[in-house]
Amino acid sequence: MIAADMAVILPGSFSFEAREELSAPAFFYRWFIVDRRTGGRKLMPEFMTCAQAVGLYPGAQPDLRTCESRAVSRTRLERY
């Protein structure tokens, strides 16, 4: 028996707008940078968004083969 004060969420009970707020796609890549010591290109092991990579490594180029789409909440997406 379910208590009267407990909320029950059924699948499909969210409106489209609520689902839109819950998640948004963010694209993450591994990035090529120029190694300062050798002057050659180096593939970074971390996955980053475009904003993160350009902020950390000016001139970075994405490796398009490594693209990952992840669902991220809108408030978290604003940080990227």
Walkthrough of the structure:
By secondary structure, this protein is α+β, with helices and mostly antiparallel strands. A hairpin with a 6-residue loop joins strand 1 and strand 2. The chain has a domain at 23-77. The protein has helices at 16-22, 50-56, 74-77, and strands spanning 24-34, 41-43, 61-72. The longest helix is centred in the first third of the chain and has 7 residues, at 16-22. A three-stranded antiparallel sheet has the order 2-1-3. It starts with 15 loop residues before the first helix and ends with a helix. The protein is built from three helices and three strands; from the N terminus they run αββαβα. The chain is elongated. Residues 1-10 have low confidence and may be disordered.
